[in-house]
Amino acid sequence: MPGPLTAPVRQSGVRAHNLALVLQTVAKSPNPISRASVAGTTGLTRATVSALVDDLVAGSLLTELAPPPRTGAGRPAVGLALAPYGPAGLGLEINVDYLAACVMDLTGAVRHRLVEHADQRPGGAAAALAGLGALAARARALAEHDELTVAGAALAVPGLVTADGLVRVAPNLGWQEVDAPALLRATPALADLPITVDNEANLAALSELRAEGGSPSFVFVSGEIGIGAGIVLDGTLYRGVRGWSGEIGHITVYPDGRACRCGARGCLEQYAGQEAIGDLAGAGAALGIALSGVVNLLDVDTIVLGGVYAPLLPALGPLIHAELAQRAITAGLAPTRLRAAALGADAAMRGAADLVVRSVQDDPAAYLSLSRASGL
Amino acid sequence: MPGPLTAPVRQSGVRAHNLALVLQTVAKSPNPISRASVAGTTGLTRATVSALVDDLVAGSLLTELAPPPRTGAGRPAVGLALAPYGPAGLGLEINVDYLAACVMDLTGAVRHRLVEHADQRPGGAAAALAGLGALAARARALAEHDELTVAGAALAVPGLVTADGLVRVAPNLGWQEVDAPALLRATPALADLPITVDNEANLAALSELRAEGGSPSFVFVSGEIGIGAGIVLDGTLYRGVRGWSGEIGHITVYPDGRACRCGARGCLEQYAGQEAIGDLAGAGAALGIALSGVVNLLDVDTIVLGGVYAPLLPALGPLIHAELAQRAITAGLAPTRLRAAALGADAAMRGAADLVVRSVQDDPAAYLSLSRASGL
User: Fold this and answer.
1) SS (H, E, C) chain B
2) Does A250 contact chain B (CB < 8 Å)?
3) Which residues numbered 107-126 in B keep a CB inside 8 Å of some CB on A?
4) Is 0.90 topped by the overall pTM?
5) Are residues A229 and A325 in the same domain?
């Protein structure tokens, strides 16, 4: 039998597909849904649905709710819902001045949330990730105390990350070529956990995509010490050729302007980053100039402001709109909507946890094989 | 029976799907391909393939080439190829200083190409589109003389176009709210033709996508009187929420710089448009600053320079690379490739014709119904 770290033994492709179909049908339903309704929605037979539901219930992915009191004729159906006691995602975040971890169950509810405020730069990557490892271990223990099974972890980092989780550079942390999953797994309680790493603005944008009812194309801009963006086009996160899209903090606003940490001059970050935002008028104008370029290039109709920008929207909004009105060529034809991030400072960490939860929802067969193999 | 301008009567969905599958299998094959090979590739039975091929041959979409001389044992197979005498696309382009039309057959070959140089601004939209209508009528007559059937026309315009072909604004032509399809159909020879309209940089980018062997994510930048861009992400043209992406000419380069026709200050167009490009150093620096922003935002690894930029690449390239090296945050990790457009000034017109040709390849059943209904 394979151990928990090897690739899961796949069930037949058809069964895996149908398990995901049933789980996602329940997940999408706003209310508990009967086996018969799942059969009707998916086009699978009732017998097939029942067998698949039994597996999902046994694996703690679905729960069967007691029928409501009889109010009329007919037999009340038992309702299926996502289980709040089965697999969970561990969302981690590291930033210049804090560490954070959260546990999200399969229903999307955040069950635990731990934050430690401290400057993460002095000790370097190893110390910061050891600290985060300790926080993550505490979060995992809290999850297990709730009888949740942490299926994996995802880490949000303010930097350029490769597909296999190597942080190439995180300028504001002072990191270069950091193997973040390996350093996190140095914490014994995390040694067996699948860990993915992604850019914080990308993960925050994924959170906002779940929260966003309206436009499926938007740019999420996160103001921290650095400024990052997550680009969602037609409902999908656009990561870029190498996964390094959204480096909006280094868009040139004033070509002969202030020197930036990155070596260039006049980057947006020097005018609208957390350390410059005391000059609100300057920050708003610089953001407006850069965002006008984004709108001209991408024709998105919505910009979501997160991080330190969210609470400042009443002050920044008119300044940004003034630049958009002048510089976005479509301003006279169609407005650009500015809104504050729905999830505040937790967006990236929640997006990280959500990535794990969605991976279970996308492939429950893999999770079931894994949890069987490891005796969970 | 519906006339040629109404929606085609669809064959059964399955037959329509399989007709497209067979046609595209032949289109993708670098050499003539036998019916048996088509069956093998598609998974359809030989009998089904033969019936579908017969329809495609009868409709002049496919042609059967004579077998090559026998060189060994076995029965030589008849080879299927796209027919060079069946449906064709009419590609049209209007720009500030020229009109152009071309005829592309189903194999992608440009069979006729007509260009008229003249300032299109003085007479306004009606005069310009009447002139283009006359050019298009000549091109259609040449196509019919070759026994080609023009299946539709597409028009490339340097402006913001809605999904139904209305030109909202084309600043350098001085157009606002121009119903281009209606004005083109005022030419009697075009009255029966389906006409679509799209932004010229989008259509040129589609041409370059067909020509581009390497990266499926690139930004095509077209330098004319105005500057437009077509954005191709993961092999697909990204049009934007309202179809207005790629307005790179109005990205701010110098916030307090020269006044632009659009009402803003410091737009790229004022430093690197055709009328400013005499100052090559200034044009290259401005392009480099704007393109650094594009790379920071989108993480594309390739930028394709078209229009007047293509022949100037030897002079502009080093200037652009100097800015990218300083301002693109990923410059030290991964280079950005600059290349000249493969198709030169014809890219937008060819992309327009290609759009029609691809629409026939994507839905041959609709074309066959149409041509039967109109007695072609």
Assistant:
1) CCCCCCCCCCCCHHHHHHHHHHHHHHHHCCCCECHHHHHHHHCCCHHHHHHHHHHHHHCCCEEEECCCCCCCCCCCCCEEEECCCCEEEEEEEEECCEEEEEEEECCCCEEEEEEEECCCCCCHHHHHHHHHHHHHHHHHHHHHHCCCEEEEEEEEECCEECCCCEEEEECCCCEEEEEHHHHHHCCHHHCCCCEEEEEHHHHHHHHHHHHCCCCCCEEEEEECCCEEEEEEECCEEECCCCCCCCCHHHCECCCCCCECCCCCECECHHHHCCCCCCCHHHHHHHHHHHHHHHHHHHCCCEEEEEECHHHHHHHHHHHHHHHHHHHCCCCCCCCCEEEECCCHHHHHHHHHHHHHHHHHHHCHHHHHHHHHHCCC
2) yes
3) none
4) no
5) yes
